[in-house]
Amino acid sequence: MAMTLDVNGKPLAVKAAPDTPLLWVLRDELQLTGTKYGCGVSQCGACTVLVDGQPTRSCVTPIEGLAAAKITTIESLGGAHPVQAAWVKHDVPQCGYCQSGQIMSAVALLAKTPKPTEADIDGAMDGHICRCGTYQRIRAAIKDAAGLTPAAVAPVAPAKV
Amino acid sequence: MNAPLTPANITGATRREVVVSATLVGGALLVGCSPGDLLSVGAKTEFGAFGPFIKIGADGAVTVVSKHIEFGQGNHTGLAAIVAEELDADWTKVKVEQAPAIAKVYANTGMGVQGTGGSSAISNSWDQLRKAGASARAMFVEAAANKWSAPVGEISVKDSVVSHAGSAKSATFAELLPDAAKVTPPAAPTLKDPKTFTLIGTDKVRRKDSQAKSDGTARFTQDVHLPDMLVAMVAHAPRFGAKVATFDAAEAKKVPGVVEVYQIPTGVAVVAENTWAAKKGRDALSVTWNEDAAEKRSSATILAQYKDLASGKTPATDKMKWQAFESKGDITKATGDAFEATYDFPFLAHATMEPMNCVAQVSMGKAKLTFGSQIPTVDQLNTAKIVAMLPGAVEIETLFAGGSFGRRANFQSDYVAECVEIAKKVGKDRPVKLVWTREDDMTAGYFRPIVHHTVRVTLDKDGYPASWRHRVVTQSIMKGSPMGEPKLDETAVEGTKGSPYLKATPIVDAQLIQPDVGVPVLWWRSVGATHTAFAMEHTIDQLARKAGKDPVEYRRAIYTKAGANRHLAVLNLAAEKAGWPKAAADGWSRGVAVHESFGSVVAQIAEVKLVDGVPKLGKVITAVDCGTAISPDQIAAQMEGGTCYGLSAALFGQVTLKDGAVEQTNFDTYRVLRNTEAPTVETYIVPSGNAPSGVGEPGTPVIAPAVANAILAMTGQGTTSLPFVKA
Fold first, then answer.
1. CB contact (8 A) between residue A132 and residue B72
2. Residues on chain A touching B642 (C-beta within 8 angstroms)
C-alpha cells in the first residue's frame, strides 16, 4: 500500500501504513533524522516540520492525509538559511535536540511575518520546549534574522585578572 | 591483576574465567585499586604521536579528543580551547571528536573512572589538556629548531604556523608534521603564563557544534540507523519493584513489522523493524504484574513520614539513624526568640528532550554500545555483567545526548542494561535500538528524591544567627554505588554542610536521616543544592526580615564574619549591576540569593511579579565566580540555561505517586518552562586567576530562593514548599 509524499520538493514513495505518523516515516523510512521525537503528543514541538508552509507536529500527523501536501524538513534549509545563520551567530543550541523544531517554526514565522513583534514570537514559539533553556537566545536569533535589533547580549566582564 | 591479561589470552579464556574476571574487575572499584588500569584490559591503548587527546592530520588540522560527553554544557568547546591555547593552534580550524571508552587514559581525574558529572569536565581536564597542548607545541618547536638550526627559544607559534623571526622562516603544522611526530614528547612541558592567553577568556571561544545542531546533522542516539537494525520498546511495570507475572504476546506478534517478543528482567520487550511497529506491538501486549515487592506508597504518604521523622514523632532506628553533618557548641544552651521553618521538595523528573535510548550489538565475546554514555566505565561494567565479558572489552561509541542533567549517569545503567538484555536475546551482533517513549522516560524513576528540611534558628542581640538547628530527611542517591556507599551521603546535605551561614553561627546542630523508599532516585542538575540552596537562602532572607535588615547587607555581614570572600564578591557584583537597593519598578519585587556549588559561587537578583498568583520573571542579574573563564559566552549560556532549568522546577516541577504509580506521564501533566515564561538572564563574571571550576550546574539552584525571596519582600509570606504553582 505504497503512497508518495512530497518531501523537500521530491516525490518519495513510502511503504509505511497510512496511519503511521509522518515523524516515523521521515525518521525511520526516509532517514531524515533532523526532525526529532520528543513527546509523541504534540506538546514539545521537537517534531515540527512545515506542511504547505504551516508548522505541523509530525508526531501526531498520520501520512494518509498528506498525499497532496508539500512537506518541508530541516534538511531542506541547506544549513545557511538566514534563520540557521542567526542560530549559529548567537550560539543558540546547547544539547541541540529541540532546535530543528524551533528553527522550522521560526522559519514559518518569518515567512509570514518578516518583522515580528514580541507577541508574534510568543505565539509562534511558545509551543516549543527547550529543556536546556535557550529561550532568550532563540528570541534574539529570530530578531536578528528578521533584521531587528535583538536585546543587548549580556555584557560579560573581562575574564582576565 | 598481576598476570597481564591481553586480548590474545582473553580469547582463550573460558566463559567462567571471563565471568570471574568481570566480577573481580567490578570488585576492584569497591576496594579502590586503580580501576582505570583494570577496567581497560582488552581496550586499545595505542595512540598517535601527540597522545590520546590530540590528533593532527596530514593537512595540519588539529582534532581534540574529548573524554567528556557533550549534552549541552559546551564542554567540547571549552576542552578544545584549552588545547588550542597551549598549542597555539588555529582555533577556527580546530575540530572535536568524542573519545572511546578507555578508563585508563580517559578517566575523569576526579572520579577515577571515565565519566562526566559534577560540573567537572573542564576543571578535571585543565592541567591534563594544558600539558597535552603544550607538549604538542614543544614537539613542533623542536622540529622547527632542528630543521632551521635555530635556538628553541627563538621559535614562535601562532595559528598553527611555526616561525623563526631571525631567519624569517616559517612552516605550517602540516609541513612540520613528519618531523614533529618523531620528537620525544617533553616529560614536563612548559605551560603558558595565563596572562599571555590569547584565546581562553575571549569571545573567540564559541561553540564548535552550533552548525551541526542548527542544520539537523548532529547525531544523537535516536538518529542511529545501522544495517539490519531492530527497534525495541519495553512494557514496564506500573509500580517500582514489580515483576512480570504473565504475558500474552499473541496480539503484539500480529502487528506488521513486529519481529519477536522477549521477557527481560525489566519487563516485556517487543522488537520490530521500525519504531512505530515496536510501539504498536508494545501497546498490543497483555502483561500482568507481580507487585508483592512493589513500592505502593503515595508521595504524600512518603512526605508525611519524612515530616514525622524530622519532628521526632517517628523515632530513628538502629538501621536508620540520624547522622550529624555539622555540629558545634551545645544546642541545648540556645536561648531566645526562634525562627522556625520547614521546606518540602517533591520528586523531580529530569525530562531531557531526548528520552532515554541506547543501541547495542551483542555476539559471542563482543559487545558494542552506541549512545550518549555519561559514565562509560560504569556502563561497561554493567554491560559486562550481562554478557560475561571483560568490561574494558565492551566497546562504547559515545554520541551527543539530547540533555541529561544527571539522568544518563546511574549506577545500574538502567536503560543501557535493558537494551543489552534485549540485544543479548537477539544476538548475532544484530543492532538493537531501544527507544523509550516520553511516557516510559517520565515514569521510569531515577527522580530527584523528595526532601524535607526543618530549620530552627535563634538570633543574637544584633539579629544574626546565634544557633542553627537543621534536620534533613531524604532518600540516599548513593545507594548501590560501585565506588562503595559513603559513610555520609554528602550529596544529600552539600550546601547546607559547608554553608558560610553555619560557619558564622556559634552553635550548630545539623543532622541527616535517610529512609529507604522503593523509588529509584538520582542526582538532578546541581544535586543537593537543588534543595539546600533554597533552605539556606530563603531562611536567611526571612532572618534578615525578622532582624529588620536589608537582605544584601545582612548577607554581607555574615560573609565577612565567615571569611566567605567569593560569596561577598559575587553578591557585590550582582548588587552593583542590579542597582541594589534601588526600588523595583511598580508592581515588581526583587529577590536575592547566593549559593556555592561545584567550586563556583553564583549570586542572582531576580525581578518578580505575581500574575494571578503565579510568579512572572523579568530580568535576572547573575554574577558568577567560576575561576578562570574559558568561554565567557558559554558561561553566560550555562547561567541562562541553568536558571531556566531551576526555574522550571521551582515554578511547576513535581512528580507525584498515587499508591506507588507515577501520575505524570508527559509534558501535558509534567509542566515545564516555556519561552514566554523565561527570564532575561544577564551574566557577569568575576575576574579570577584560580583554576576553572564548575559551570554546568551552579546556575541552577539559585533562582528558586531568589523568587521566594522576591515574593517574601512583596507579600511578607515565606514559601514552605516547591513548586510555587501546585497544579
1. yes
2. 133
Of B635, B320, B698, give the one whose Cα is nearest residue B494.
Answer: B698
Interface of B with A in 229-248 (CB under 8 A): 231
User: In which domain, by residue range, is A92 found?
Assistant: 77-145
Peptide bond into B723 cis (omega under 30): yes
**What is the per-residue pLDDT for A3?**
94
The reported pLDDT for the residue numbered B94 is: 98
The domain B54-215 having CATH identifier 3.10.50.40: the answer here is no
The total domain count for chain A is 2
Instruction: Indicate whether A11 and A41 sit together in one domain.
Output: yes
Reading phi first (left if > 0) and then psi (alpha if -120 to 50, else beta), residue B262 is in beta
The C-alpha cell at B705 is: 530562593
CB-CB under 8 Å, A136 with B680: yes
Question: Do B632 and A78 count as a contact with CB atoms less than 8 A apart?
Answer: no
pTM above 0.90, yes or no: yes
Query: How far is the alpha carbon of A155 from chain B, nearest alpha carbon, in Å?
Result: 7
- How many other C-beta atoms lie within 10 A of the C-beta of residue B270? 30
* Domain membership flag for residue A12: yes
Q: Which three cell numbers stand for residue B152?
A: 628553541
For A44-103, the pLDDT digits (tens) are: 999 999 999 999 999 999 999 999 999 999 999 999 999 999 999 999 999 999 999 999
Q: Are residues A28 and A82 in the same domain?
A: no
- CATH label, B221-293+351-443, candidates 3.30.365.10, 3.30.70.1060, 3.40.50.2000, 3.40.50.720: 3.30.365.10
**What confidence score (pLDDT) does residue B3 get?**
32
Instruction: From chain A, pick out residues whose CB is under 8 angstroms from the CB of B628.
Output: 159
Domain boundary assignment for chain B:
54-215, 221-293+351-443, 451-516+525-715
- Residues 6 or more apart whose Cβ sits within 8 Å of residue A23: A35, A37, A47, A58, A59, A61
Per residue, the 3-state secondary structure of A112-142, as one string, reads HCCCCCHHHHHHHHCCCCCCCCCHHHHHHHH
Under an 8 A CB cutoff, do A156 and B203 touch? yes
Give the pLDDT score at B28.
38
Q: Where are the alpha helices (DSSP H) in B522-616?
A: 529-547, 551-562, 565-578
Residue B75, C-alpha cell as written in the block: 564542554
Interface test mutation site (partner A, options B214, B279, B572, max chain A beta carbons within 10 A): B214
Asked whether the beta carbons of residue B231 and residue A132 sit closer than 8 angstroms, the reply is no
We find that the CATH architecture of domain B451-516+525-715 is 2-Layer Sandwich (3.30)
Interchain CB distance below 8 Å, B636 and A133? no
Res B540: pLDDT: 98
CATH number at residue A92: 1.10.150.120
CB–CB contact B641 A36 (8 Å): no
**Mean pLDDT of successive 10-residue segments in chain B (727 residues)?**
31 34 40 56 81 97 98 98 98 98 95 95 98 98 98 98 97 98 96 97 97 98 98 98 98 98 98 98 98 98 98 95 97 93 98 98 95 97 95 96 98 97 97 98 98 98 97 94 84 98 98 97 98 98 98 98 98 98 94 98 98 96 98 98 98 98 98 98 97 98 98 97 93
Bridge partners (DSSP) of residue B341 are B455
Residue for grid cell 614533529 = B180
Residue A159 lies inside a defined structural domain of this protein: no
Given CB atoms, is B74 within the 8 Å cutoff of chain A? Answer: yes
Nearest residue in B to A34, CA atom: B216
- On whether any CB of chain A is under 8 Å from the CB of B352, the answer is yes
Task: Give the neighbor-by-neighbor strand order of the sheet with B614-625.
Answer: B589-597, B600-611, B614-625, B680-685
Residues A58 and A85 in one domain: no
Q: What angle do CA B629, B635, B639 make, to 5 degrees?
A: 140
- What ipTM score was computed for the predicted complex, to two decimals? 0.96
